[in-house]
Amino acid sequence: MPIPFWAGHYIGLPYKSRGRDTKGLDCWGLVRLVLHEQMNIQVPSYTAFYDSAENPQQVGSLVRRVSLNWGRVSWGQCGDVLVLRMRGEPMHIGLVLDETYMLHIERGINSVIERYDSSKWKKRIIGIFRYQKHDR
Hints:
31% of the residues are buried. Helix content is 20%, strand content 29%. It has one domain (7-130): Alpha-Beta Complex (endopeptidase fold (from Nostoc punctiforme)). The strands form two sheets. It has a six-stranded antiparallel β-sheet, with helices on one face. A two-stranded antiparallel sheet has the order 1-2. The protein contains two helices and eight strands; from the N terminus they run ββααββββββ. The model has no long low-confidence stretch (mean pLDDT 86). It has 136 residues and is α+β, with helices and mostly antiparallel strands.
């Protein structure tokens, strides 16, 4: 499965703690934006759950909230969310683009496409989660 053509539109977007639009995004903001624009999936902003990306416990709380509200899968497909460990804590999220690439953004680094099976990321993967629509 090739990387979707639209992924290139999201490369180079600037980082901003709690950012939720193309003027600046954090990792959840980027995932949220792409899910909405490319897959018509609406997910919560979650900005009320943390003050800044510099607080690992707060970002970890956000990451755990995402992982609890989504179904865990054994392999990723486009639109799934990777939960990743940073500084020993679950505090980073990337969007799966295909079986080896993710789109993500970090403090100090604009949004990029990287291999999540690389030595840098492979051992940091906590899980892969897929959006589960719940009818109520």
